[in-house]
Amino acid sequence: MKKALVVDDTKSNRLFLSKCLESEGYLVKSAGNGKQAMDLLKAENYHIIFLDIKMPYMSGTEVFKWLTQQGIKAPVVITTAYATVKNAVECTQMGAVAYLQKPFTLARFRELVLEIEQKISGSTVKTNFIPDPVIENQEDFQVVKRDLECDNPAAALIYLKQALSEDPANPEIYRLLSEAYYSIGNKDYAEKFMQASEVFKVRDLI
To answer: Which residues carry this modification: 4-aspartylphosphate (predicted)?
Structure first.
């Protein structure tokens, strides 16, 4: 199975990116700082690395320089907010394959991952990306719930994955994703999304 590493000091960002990568078939590990990332990278190889540029103690730029010095060849995607785009561009000039500016949509994430996978495999297949429908209000949630009740989890997943990109801290989206994956028999994903729902539910109460 393809393996990915997500490095970000913000837990919700790590969780969101991990779920996005898992939905694309990756086995994901995550690190909350540069030291944890270095330890994981010393232990095993990864097919792709998502690296946040702005972290305390050790920046993403410093981690990337260490990766280069160690001869680690996995493609690195720099994730960045607007304020650190300049740093992200510098990393791409040093060898990072791309940078992903936050916030980003699930469609943009999928497009970027596919571009990288095609570049690695040497494929020249062109794809047309159709934006996913967006959940904008409670009525849209009712549509998703009806899809689940009518045994149509695939349709629900399309809405929910896009909703997650727009509102990655909403526990209800994670709960519905758990229900959808359970409906299609993917108990591992169902449990992970339910755990994520509980994490964000607790955070809302703090």
So the answer is: 52
